[in-house]
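Field reference: sequence -> structure
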Amino acid sequence: MQFWQRLEPSGHLFHDGVVTIGNFDGIHIGHQTLLRQAVRLGHPVAVITFAPHPMQVLQPERRLLSLFPREDLAEQLPAYGIDLLAVLPFDQALARLLAADFLQQ
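Structure field:
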């Protein structure tokens, strides 16, 4: 499994794939179902998540606790057939980005 801490500017490393985007703060049954369905499509599968958790940036007063360490995610995803994990830095600038701009960039 590849691991990126930023999105690569060139798509040649991950082409014609399925992308899941979310917090993935634990691989619960919903995540498991999503990952299995993505893998069944027969294309490379990427998981894009964020660090820190967006709520830690947007509402720090909530003192959000992680369900499990981010490192555990990297260890568990290969068992589901995931090809790429991208953990993107989440900050106020990313929070202000429109969804269409996020996808284009």
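Note: The helical segments are 29-40, 54-58, 70-76, 92-96, 99-104.
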